[in-house]
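Researcher: Batch entry, complex prediction.
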Amino acid sequence: MIPACPLAALPRGEAYRLDVEPPIALFHTEDGEIYAIDDTCTHQDASLADGWLEGCEVECPLHASRFDLRTGRVDAPPAKLPVRTHRVVVEDGTVYVVPSEEPPNLPPGIRAGTA
Amino acid sequence: MRSIAVVGASLAGLSAARALRGQGFEGRLTLIGTESHRPYDRPPLSKEFLAGRMSEADLALEADDEDLGAEWRLGATATGLDPSDRRVLLDDGTSVRADGIVVATGASARTLPGGGGLGGVHTLRSLDDARALRSDLVKGRRLVVIGAGFIGAEVASTARDLGLDVTVVETAPTPFAGALGAEMGAVVASLHGDHGVRLICGVGVRGLLGAGRGLAGTDRADGVQRSEGAGRVDGASGPEGVDRVEGARAPEGVDRVEGARAPEGADRVEGALLDDDRILPADVVLVGIGARPNVEWLAGAGFQLTNGVVCDAGGATGVPGVVAVGDCAAWFDPAMGYHHRVEHWTGALRRPAAAAVTLLSGGATAPDPPSSPYFWSDQYGMKIQFVGHARPGDTVTVEEGDVADRSFLAVYRRQDRPVAVLSLNQVRLFTRWRRRLDAVPNRTDSTLRSEL
Ligand SMILES: Cc1cc2nc3c(=O)[nH]c(=O)nc-3n(C[C@H](O)[C@H](O)[C@H](O)COP(=O)(O)OP(=O)(O)OC[C@H]3O[C@@H](n4cnc5c(N)ncnc54)[C@H](O)[C@@H]3O)c2cc1C
Ligand code: FES
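Model: Structure tokens for the complex:
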């Protein structure tokens, strides 16, 4: 379990990028849920924390593929692979991430560990 | 509606097929496409794919397990449309009849009149074009890019990265003036100089030179130099101090690689002759002078064809049961008040959903107002993003960052109202602005003003 940020640093509607390898994006939805997914889009090198949060989905800031924060599923091209999701724990005002053990779906040209 | 034929099997056609299935259409669906390839993504053709960082498999637009339950007629070209029973005629002599038709035939790269036939001269629209160009981009060669639009600029950037000596020539005094306005157009065009690429503006290309052939194109090229909105300024002279470019030094950092020169031959390009009689020596030429909608096949079938298939704000054409989407279509744009052909990837992705509604409802359901047009470009490692419409006379203010740092966000305003946003390497902030422009009903100027 990695401490990510104080809960106060992640207001509703906002995102936070955790600089681990590969980076993880945290989102606090307008409904008050917090989700964590890999930050790098599965299409190309875009940071999903820079994306457009709407409901339980984030739209990639570059080419508009949308990822479901709960499942990592992608709705439409150009991204074709889901993004990895991570478990989130909030304890004593701190947000923690439990990194997934699945292999990440990093875009071509970005190797695992160098993203 | 029991059967639908989609003509053009690329981004707009595939998106239309997906939207039709997504909206519950269960009938017979046929996709017809000239190219033998399954739908693939074009933007990387001038960027990652050309640079060798992306493979052909990475370009696929379909997911591995995707099945639209459609019949694919790849390698078949539509040659006509018979509106009397809504029949698409194909080049192999067969035809496809359907209750509904989606026209999604996209656009083709414009070519230089008279420039054909010389080796080493390329345009870039398809995967096959990209393969051919890629094999010609050998380190140390001299590339001349004709046209400083987005595709030309991206190819210049990729080729520079691959170690070529690159010169870009543009007829207009300022590149991107149509899309970004003159002020910001000049800023984005200055990226070439930052990276050792020569940019020559305000002069047209008279023709191409090839060994033993002299001038390959005696027609003036400027008649076609205009991509939408970019006018030609006659008599504009090149930047001061640049005259004879023949034998010009390679920009620093480009090694002259022996043997990099293209093989000599009677039919290989050797240079470009400019309107002011300068000659730019070239081993490879990329002609990037815009695209032309593929609508000839619809001639005489009752469509209004003026720079694309003219459609209403929901994609309906003048022919009942036929909608048009993507680069071939000029939809009515409520925000602008006129028909407008948009050549943006996101338009080809999103608008087909509205066109599917139009087709399946027989035009009874009004489409949602369109989101503001958005496009991106990647040049010299920078992320360039633009949303909205720029017009001459808009005031432009840099709201974040600094133009000199090549990291900034600029807002275009018309009567104090934000109408467009340009950013370089400001992805996060750009997303917020894009959302803000989109959140506003796009319909009339007065509602816009009261909400922002
Ligand atoms: C090199 C390149 C880089 C680009 N980069 C960007 C970018 O960075 N950002 C951006 O926003 N946009 C970019 N674009 C634009 C974007 O790719 C287009 O807007 C998009 O491809 C339009 O999709 P479309 O399906 O309408 O047309 P197209 O992709 O042109 O597809 C049309 C298809 O129809 C087929 N066809 C044509 N005529 C017929 C016929 N008679 N019968 C059957 N089939 C036919 C064609 O062969 C083609 O496969 C780029 C385009 C290119 C070429
Ligand atoms: S980088 Fe995310 S969709 Fe392209």
